[in-house]
Amino acid sequence: MSADTAIRPRRTSLRPAWEEKPTLIGQFGKGTILTLVVAAVLIPLWTVLVTSLSSEKTINEAGGYVFIPREFNPSAYVVIFSGGQVTDAILVSTFVTVVGTALSLVVTVLAAYGLSRPGTLWHRSILFYFLLTFLIYPGMIPSYLVVTGLGLKDNLLALILPTAISAFNLVVLRAFFMSIPGELYDSARIDGAGELRILWRIVLPLSKAVTAVVGLFYAVGYWNAFFNAILYIDRNDLQPVQRVLQQFILAGQSPTSSGTAVAIPGLGSTMPPSLAIKMAVVVVTIVPALIIYPFIQRHFTKGVIIGAVKG
Amino acid sequence: MSAPPVAAPQAQVEKAKKKAKPVSRQRLSFGQRLRRDWPLLLMCLPAMLLLLVFHYIPALGNIIAFQDYNPFVGDDPLEAFLYSEWIGFGNFEYLFKNAAFWDSVVNTLSITAFQLVFYFPIPIFLAMLLNSIMSPRIRSLVQSVVYLPHFFSWVLVVSLFQMMIGGAGLLAQTLRHAGYTPPDMMTNPETFMFLITSQALWKDAGWGMIVFLAALVAIDTSLYEAAAADGAGRWRRMWHITLPGLRSVIILLLILRLGDALNVGFEQFVLQREMVGREAAEVVDTYVYYQGIAVQQWGVGAAAGLFKAVVGILLIVGANKLAHRFGEQGIYSKS
Fold it and tell me: Where does the ABC transmembrane type-1 domain start and stop, copy by copy (chain B) (predicted)?
């Protein structure tokens, strides 16, 4: 599993004696490539942030996007947070993310624990049932018919339930639960603890990190949910942020089968939103990812994710 | 960093013990096992139910591909399904005669092929480049930055591209300012392939490095030392040690990608289909959506979806056979 990558000490910055000194051209080339790669990621984010904090006047002077910050003008944020479509969307997405992640985590942890001891009744069949989801996909159209048939049209549960379980996350958690020494289970059982108590008191405290990472992956998925909203949500006040972002930035070039025009907050609906407001919406969709990112990232090196990738 | 080496052998001992256990468990009768294990079964139940309703029932629901499904013959989809007419392979006949469908298949496969050449090697290259950087601070800084876009949604990625290189984007704005005419990059069907590949690279090339970085760290350093002592330069070491060390990961991922040839992503294309037009941007998944839900030819859409699913399973099984042929593990093995 991940042991071989996780236990190896980090390479020090000391160049081993047998390695030749880097050539000047080589160093320069590497530096250029890495700088370009990093810039390609950061420049768009920077531009968006600076423009969102600019006044109408600065934006007009720059002829559009602002790259060099001149002022700190949060009026665009005041507009989008003072009610209207964007505020609704932020609330909707927050609700879907929080409730969805909680549900996904509870259900996934329970199932992963239930499957963590080979040799229990029907263990192999149930595992197979979960793994088969990797091979057999539900089609888009039958899924649509099932979800609408359950009456979930214009119901936020339609953004939660269909994507609540990822067999991949389940397998990751299960693998970790299985690596917990069996003596711990046995001693707890001798002391009279039931399965739920063992899970809550012994297994979960030992697997905080993996559980957190799995939860964060679920959260990212819910926050980024977009297409299910096109399929299942028609009402304007129930649209998630990704949908509003699409309407704001890519409007007129979007799939419009079930889409309705988005009213612009704080402005007459005939006027297009100002660039700063658009950019503020972009920032709002990025920020949650930025907040949780360091938490996920801390576990990269611990091999959690690498172990998962290797299966 | 000192604890894990002790933990690893322990885990192996545990594994050995676990293997031994089931033998004694087999002696219990079904009733005894049920009495012992029912809490565990109960814990699996919610997840199983969710998958049943939202995964397996829709998967079975693909049989409406053999119906002239009409949502108006019943009050809800189930009734409509029961009362709709069965028409055998009629939808498939329509599908296979439909030029737009074959266009979408061809588009999908060309995109897969294009990305095998212009996407697939980039994470490998980046991982090798990053691995050769000595300073741990630069390494982790670059990693932090390039992993980030993986957590962005496709809406956000396409939006950012639109803002940077779109007709009213930062680049066009700068070029116009300098008196040039900006090139059309977001809506040009001719260059669409490059556009989606650079979007995919921007979003996931950094993330794709992780597997290769792990494989690179696992290569025994003494091999490099020995090769250097024998006079191998850095390029020869790369060719004879680094690349062979990555071989099995590369083959595995390559085969996985082949097994996934009909999956090129969905949201990325749905978002841009209107901008560049159907001819360039229609892939099988978007065809299913437009044919089935937007145009409401449910049966035909479902038939296209089922076609994709069946071909997909065949491709995965075939790719896995191929992996075994190469002496690799593949995604699953006979056990």
Answer: 105-319
Record: contact A300-B289, CB cut-off 8 A? no
Give a yes or no: residue B70 inside a domain: yes
> What is the number of H-type helices and E-type strands within chain B?
18, 2
Over residues B66-88, the pLDDT tens digits come to: 988 888 888 888 888 888 889 88
Give yes or no for a contact between A13 and A187, defined as CB atoms under 8 angstroms apart: no
Alpha-carbon gap: B113 to the closest alpha carbon of chain A (Å) = 22
What CATH code is assigned to A77-310? 1.10.3720.10
Overall average pLDDT of the A247-271 stretch: 48
Q: What is the reported pTM?
A: 0.85
* Whether A140 and B301 lie within 8 Å, measured CB to CB: yes
Q: Nearest residue of B to residue A45 by CA position? A: B160
Q: Which domain holds residue B60?
A: 4-86
Rounded to whole angstroms, how far apart are CA atoms B292 and B289?
5
Question: Closest approach of chain B CAs to the CA of A225, in angstroms?
Answer: 8
Least confident of A2-16, A103-117, A176-190, B101-115: A2-16
Domain match, B72 and B132 both = no
Model pLDDT, residue B6 = 38
**ipTM of predicted complex:** 0.85
CB B228 within 8 A of CB A18: yes
Using a 10 angstrom Cβ sphere, with 0-12 exposed, 13-18 middle and 19 or more buried, the burial of residue B91 is buried
Q: Which residue of B has its CA nearest to A254?
A: B271
CB contact under 8 A, B48 and A108: no
Rounded to a whole number of angstroms, the distance from the CA of A114 to the nearest CA of chain B is 4
Instruction: Verify whether the Cβ–Cβ distance B305 to A139 is below 8 Å.
Output: yes
